[in-house]
Amino acid sequence: MTITEDPTTLSIEDLPELLKNDNSVKVAGCDIDGVMRGKLMSKKKFLSVAADGFGFCSVIFGWDMHDQTYFRELKISNKENGYRDLLAQIDLSSFRRIPWEKDVPFFLVSFREPSGESLSACPRSLLERASKKLEEQGMGALAGAEYEFYQFKVPGEHTGPLSERNSSNTARFLKENPPHKLPSLTEGMFGYSITRPLHNQDYYYGVYDACEKFGCNIEGWHTESGPGVFEAALEYGEIKAMADKAALFKMVVKSVAGKYGITPCFMAKPRANLPGNSGHMHVSICDPKTRENLFYRKEADPSPPYEDLRHVSDLGRHFLAGLLEGLPDVMPILAPTINSYKRLVENFWAPVTVSWGLEHRAASIRLIAPPSAPPKATRFEIRVPGADTNAYLVLATILALGWRGVEKKLEIPIPPLGKGEDVGSANDTGARLAKSLKEANDRFKSKDSIAREVFGDDFVDHYAGTREHEIRLFDEAVTDWEFQRYIETV
């Protein structure tokens, strides 16, 4: 049936035929932490709201990832406005079926103000607003995402089916046991192993197949270096669709893993003294009609400002300059949790300064361009984000900063890192990125922050408030490290 082959062509009139054999529909939207919030509704109800949207409690923008309301109530959802309803607008082009839930129909929503206006804090809407600036100039953006994540076995003695050994069991275990007691899916360092995935073959191929059926296809799927670590590179595509796929990829992994007694972990640094989990993003600008890569310079520049830029267009250079200038001001988006900054430390293949370079994997921004890549593959890989990030916010940030550089015709402020030069070396002239969420958030919310310039005060004030909540929770927590260190000695 044609209407199911290309969901971007779906119309309201197609829905009765599309759903003729279904009795329910699942809908979901993304909150500020990247958590999918949604519900199952009857087909009758769905059809009645498909055109105009439906009310959705704003509390999902008034609480954290564990449903605790923020210490300081924020503008969108609070006691004074009664935790009002927002408008959830259904995106028909996001249609897919959930293969691990009996192929129930699924649609994504964007959250709007009750009047229908774009909601400042809705991650999906933020990316829509950032993309619109390019679209108005006849340009489009493409993106790809790579996620690394640890995986743990659900601990304990079990005699029941695997499907009962889920993350709830893991959470219960961690209430009574230290995290290092949680067993890894596999042991040892086996990056790019051909045989290691066979230890959990049904799960490994189950994730891959579910992603293909669910419309968030994997281009590359392999073990990474670390106990029980996998990495997925998602199929490159239009940036808004890519953000959907990246957000839904985590949903796929968590859903499929639960059926095998596995708990996946996307936090940035699950284990001390081991590599962290990255969430690298690749971005390029194109002509949506011809698919021409607009970062590529057709005729090599005979006298570029830096040799690394010989094949990069003026548009690409300004875009890179915007990224480099804005990077320090948006760190709470690229590193959103207390734990994020445990990954961004020296000597662990993680970027810690404002830096860039052609095919340089230690830099914050890796330029991929000729002569080491074909012209159509010219792009920037932003390597600061961890796997704990919200894909919508990260991609919106990359577009917003890069486009600011284009609009202002910014010049690249620092030279590239040379081959063999590490971040923090004598030749690394870039500023050190924030070392903590508090430091990052203070800069993000400052009066003259570039974040305020590109996103506006409403979003910055809301997001900064959510990070203040995270910081306060940690400040008030007593960790195992503190207890073990001080119990007898002070």
From TrEMBL:
Keyword Ligase: yes
Entry's family note: Belongs to the glutamine synthetase family.
Pfam families, A to Z: Gln-synt_C
Superkingdom as given in the UniProt entry: Eukaryota
Domain GS catalytic, residue spans: 123-490
The entry's keywords: Ligase
Name this protein carries in UniProt: Glutamine synthetase
UniProt key word Metal-binding: no
Classification via PROSITE patterns: GS_CATALYTIC
